[in-house]
């Protein structure tokens, strides 16, 4: 499949551009230790990532991807604050780029595409990560999980990008690794690319209705019909 007339590319962050699990797991386990709770293996925490900091905190407190409905709200807020404090110190210690991410973004940016981050990660952490990994200059806009009242899978973040940049959903493409990205794009009337290597809680990304599914980030370039200069 080839996408035509795309000007704006919206990218999820965790599980799409970066593998942030090592630093998230470190910070979650530091939080659990501070609360005198048992820490978990990194691979277990990996299965909980993808729905924002608050949900990750609740899953850690529950010890399961299924959140305990009886969790005390005040205790959750305390735990979340502790987690965010630790993550602020660990935000880019072992976080790494997935293969071909930087070269692909550089190529897309050079080709004239407008690049945007749309993530459920709290906004305060996004630019420091992008800067540390040498990606900051590629993105003209960042929308975090706490930037607006709602976040993916709700389409609000995507609609906000369209309104802010003055573009239509049909000229945009959402690229992510989880069903939250695909569902948000569908609800925003936007086409999407699903990536198979990220955090989708063990579910096959092919089952969520993405316009195209790729195994390799570099495949995005081939999936786009290049922007052409207007002829006069």
Beta percentage is 5-15%
List the domain count as a whole number. Answer: 2
Order of helices and strands: EEHHHHEHEHEHEHEEH
* Global shape: globular
What is the number of helical segments per DSSP (H or I, 4+ residues)?
A: 9
Mean pLDDT: 95
Query: What is the CATH T-level topology of the largest domain?
Result: Rossmann fold
Biggest sheet details = 6 strands, parallel
Q: For the CA atoms, what is the radius of gyration?
A: 18 Å
What is the second-level CATH architecture of the largest domain? 3-Layer(aba) Sandwich
Binding site for Mg(2+): 12, 14, 177
Pathway: Organic acid metabolism; glycolate biosynthesis; glycolate from 2-phosphoglycolate: step 1/1
Organism: Pseudoalteromonas obscura
Protein name: Phosphoglycolate phosphatase
Describe the structure.
This protein has 232 residues and is of the alpha/beta class. 39% of the residues lie in helices and 13% in strands. The chain folds into two domains: 141 residues, Rossmann fold (3-Layer(aba) Sandwich), CATH 3.40.50; 70 residues, Orthogonal Bundle (DNA polymerase, domain 1), CATH 1.10.150.240. Strands 5-4-1-6-7-8 form a six-stranded parallel beta sheet, sandwiched between helices. It is globular and about 60 Å long.
């Amino acid at each position: 499949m080839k996408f035509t007339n795309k000007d704006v590319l919206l990218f999820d962050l965790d599980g799409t551009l970066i593998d942030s699990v090592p630093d998230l797991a470190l910070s979650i386990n530091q939080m659990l230790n501070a609360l005198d709770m048992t820490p978990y293996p990194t691979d277990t925490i990996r299965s909980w990532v993808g729905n924002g900091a608050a949900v990750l905190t609740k899953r850690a407190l529950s010890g399961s991807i299924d959140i305990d409905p009886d969790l005390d709200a005040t205790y959750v807020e305390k735990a979340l604050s502790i987690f965010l404090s630790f993550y602020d110190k660990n935000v880019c210690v072992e976080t790494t780029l997935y293969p071909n991410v930087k070269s692909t973004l550089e190529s897309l940016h050079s080709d004239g595409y407008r690049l945007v981050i749309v993530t459920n990660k709290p906004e305060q952490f996004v630019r420091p990560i992008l800067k540390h990994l040498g990606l900051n200059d590629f993105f003209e806009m960042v929308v975090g999980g706490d930037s607006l009242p709602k976040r993916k899978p709700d389409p609000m973040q995507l609609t906000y990008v369209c309104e802010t940049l003055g573009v239509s959903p049909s000229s945009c493409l959402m690229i992510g690794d989880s069903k939250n990205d695909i569902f948000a794009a569908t609800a925003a009337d936007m086409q999407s690319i699903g990536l198979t290597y990220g955090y989708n809680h063990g579910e096959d990304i092919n089952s969520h209705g993405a316009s195209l599914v790729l195994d390799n980030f570099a495949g995005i370039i081939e999936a786009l019909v290049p922007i052409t200069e207007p002829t006069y």
